[in-house]
Automatic annotation (TrEMBL), chains A, B, C:
Protein's name according to its UniProt entry: UDP-3-O-acylglucosamine N-acyltransferase
Pfam families per record: Hexapep, LpxD
Function: Catalyzes the N-acylation of UDP-3-O-acylglucosamine using 3-hydroxyacyl-ACP as the acyl donor. Is involved in the biosynthesis of lipid A, a phosphorylated glycolipid that anchors the lipopolysaccharide to the outer membrane of the cell.
PANTHER family: UDP-3-O-ACYLGLUCOSAMINE N-ACYLTRANSFERASE, UDP-3-O-ACYLGLUCOSAMINE N-ACYLTRANSFERASE 1, MITOCHONDRIAL-RELATED
Oligomeric and partner information: Homotrimer.
Family listed: Belongs to the transferase hexapeptide repeat family. LpxD subfamily.
Source organism: Thiobacillus sedimenti
InterPro entries attached to this UniProt entry: Hexapep (IPR001451), LpxD (IPR007691), Trimer_LpxA-like_sf (IPR011004), UDP_GlcNAc_AcTrfase_non-rep (IPR020573)
Gene Ontology MF terms in the entry: UDP-3-O-[(3R)-3-hydroxyacyl]-glucosamine N-acyltransferase activity
CDD domains named in the record: LbH_LpxD
Active-site feature positions: H238
Keyword NAD carried by entry: no
Length: 343, 343, 343
């Protein structure tokens, strides 16, 4: 793939300055760009990189129009523009349409003619695979599951029976959609399984990271709305709902029936209690435990600053006596007041 | 599947009040139950839902016998009863017995006649698969591994060589049983691998969540006793033992050779040090780090309450000077005493 | 496999004392060793175990030469010696060389003659598999990926297109090498995907645990240097680099573009911010959050000691008022000073 700078501007907009016939073959960071590559700067503090770059061209915000003599495109959001140029120059490899001879597809599954089912993939009874969707090698799509159009399931993805995935979803290897939620009734010291008869419903334009697990609902469905982006190794328990366009970083866990709002961003290794509600637009910091509902958007944190080990140990041990310390301070305040009144 | 209320009472016990001929086709939460569905109430505070439900019938504790005029079954544990009704009405889909033509089974593996081996599954040399057990598509069961009767391995499960799983186990997709424990001997700045020659032994009635990993023992075995329930994305290191009927929520990690008692409940994202022992019946809270043995049952916690970010930062920074703060308080106490003795 | 003690000493060195003709069939912990097994003691406090062992022989440090009358080998590092004896006596089962008939290998993939490709494995176009390497059942190796010589990919491993793995790597089941990094540009409330066009490059002698995920770089590569050991369920984000011989315990997460030094050890469930650098030889404790660069080696910690739940709650609540507490102490100090100056 290659494109001239003028072609890029025609396709994606922006103001072109300089030689539009320059040929762009790839995107790259400015400091290592080759003479057929394009870079970008979105923040003023990185403009200095322009002095030494070998890039063919650069994408800049309008107020940096004079920061270089290189061929350039001016646009209010250089990072987004760069992403689109990259997507144009790096189209995902598409395996040929059709069912690989080493795949196993149930006779009553409905596979779009232009879908691609990889070697070793197994598609269950009554399942439906949408137009142009790619099911990677060794994926398993359960009975009566539905995968929309233009999806990409990388290798070794598992979608359990009856779960549904919207259009343009990307599911990464090892992710598991629709395993049973963790539900048991205690009975005389043992646990009896509560059948998990809900589904997982995933909207359009969702991306799910590697080895992320989204459990099916107990009675009702687990719901991931459109545009949600989930990183790797995230646990989404049964009956959770995640609002549209929320992004969640890796290693986070969300307990059962939590209701996460839209447009939230949740840092890595956050843990969110079950049966709580989180307002639209909330930000949760890395390593933060959310133990109750957050009715107002804001940024919430419970992560501690680290120290050198010996320093940390010396300080942390007092956590075990913080209540006594507070009592001691109260006591001091009282006694001091008495002394002051006497003097 | 459907059943009359009278049939349910005949099968599962309890006291039937009202029309036993009512037909029940599904379980549902009371607030959205349809006229052929049954709900339950286990706690008095939810009895108000009875006023507006469309459910055909309801399961209630004995002291709520007069809370509704609906057909009802009275039983001391409505949730458990509900679970059993749900299991009756929602039997897991069973693939047909036999070895799928797209499976690969070693000639000397012993597969029960009524077991089901899915498409793409690979069963190793000398492995044994018990009666009525279902091995899902693309599962891999290693050489000389043994899976008991009535187990359900969902798609894409991996069981390494020589590991053993008892009867009625449910293993969810992506879980890995028997990978090597993390054991290395340092040698001149590099690590030399310690062969992990133990196994994983899993008892009867165990459930293992999606993408949970249970490592094989270094010299002896990793042991998961009967009735243990493990949620998703849990790490169980080599030589750990987990006592019967312990339940562990998602994202928890248990380091090597830890010995967890029976009937424990461990919250999500807990971390448990290696080489420690935890008493039977212990409860560990979400996000809690257990650094030493717990010889007495109890509830243990180390999770911090979150705050709004700015508030949190202002407070948390003092963690780094807690020891100095304690010294300052001590100093104040001493000086105040001196002043008091003077006045 | 079996070996005489004399053969072991000839092969691995050390000073042999006692009957060299003793036959050793297995390694074992001293307390349960059988009469054809060998144990070891590396620390003086475990020498007492020698009194009651049934082991055929034992590996000891030189200063314990007289601690037993058993046949023994003296060596400065008994644990390492034991590891090597174990590796000799427990060679990994090697499947036969060649491509299993149920594997799917692209016509233009280059597979070493003595490599072994398991049932259900899928090898992409232009991929290369090195000499003596074993690709386990149902693994997927993407287009143009390269796996070096003498590697072992256990079942159900996924390596994405264009990623590279050095010699003698061990990849455990469920691990995912080369999924897309988590990169999106915000656009009017939605997220637009940044193509992840870098690769994952893994050096020689690396081990990757079960369900560990290593994302491909956004523009440049994610790099895992030689000798790195990664436990299970670890997240390595895009553009991370991990220096040679660093070992990382399970459930740890490393955010994008972090640069971890060589010879570091990182405890379980640690979380490391993105875009920071960690010095060679650094140690990070379990459950510790590293929020900024660590330019000097040392041990760093932010994990809290647990307490019984009620005690913990009583103390932890004060975290929310720590800043006020410090102000109160300051105030006390000031007032006390005033009083002292008066008295």
């Amino acid at each position: 793939m290659a494109s001239t700078l003028a072609d890029l501007a025609a396709r994606f907009g922006g103001e072109l300055l300089g030689d539009g016939k320059v040929v762009i073959r790839q995107v790259a960071p400015l400091e290592r760009a080759q003479p057929d590559e394009i870079g970008f700067v979105s923040q003023a503090r990185y403009l200095a990189q322009l002095a030494h770059t070998r890039a063919a061209a650069v994408i800049l915000p309008p107020d940096a129009r004079d920061a270089t003599g290189l061929p350039r495109i001016l646009t209010p959001n250089p990072y987004l523009y760069f992403a689109r140029v990259s997507a144009l120059l790096n189209p995902p490899a598409r395996p040929p349409a059709g069912i690989h001879p080493a795949a196993t597809v149930a006779p009553d599954a409905v596979i779009a003619d232009d879908a691609s089912i990889g070697a070793g993939a197994v598609i269950g009874s009554g399942a439906a695979i949408g137009a142009r969707t790619v099911i990677g090698p060794n994926c398993v799509v359960g009975d009566h599951a539905r995968i929309g159009a233009d999806c990409l399931l990388h290798a070794n993805v598992t979608v359990y029976h009856r779960c549904e995935v919207g259009a343009r979803a990307i599911l990464h290897s090892g992710c598991v959609i629709g395993a049973d939620g963790f539900g048991f009734a205690p009975n005389a010291g043992a646990w009896e399984k509560i059948p998990q008869i809900g589904r997982v419903l995933i909207g359009d334009d969702v991306e799910v990271g590697a080895c992320t697990t989204i459990d099916r609902g107990a009675l009702e469905d687990t719901v991931i709305e459109a545009g949600v982006k989930l990183d790797n190794l995230i646990q989404v328990a049964h009956n959770v709902s995640i609002g549209a366009h929320t992004a969640i970083a890796a290693c986070t866990g969300i307990a059962g029936s939590a209701k996460i709002g839209r447009h939230c961003t949740i840092g890595g290794a956050a843990m969110i209690f079950g049966h709580i509600e989180i307002a639209d637009g909330t930000r949760i910091s890395t390593n933060t435990l959310i133990t109750k509902s957050l009715p107002r958007a804001g940024t919430y944190t419970s992560a501690l600053p680290f120290s050198e080990h010996e320093v940390w140990q010396k300080n942390a041990v007092h956590m075990r006596n913080l209540d006594k310390l507070v009592t001691r301070v109260k006591d001091l305040e009282k006694k001091l007041k008495e002394l002051e009144s006497k003097s």
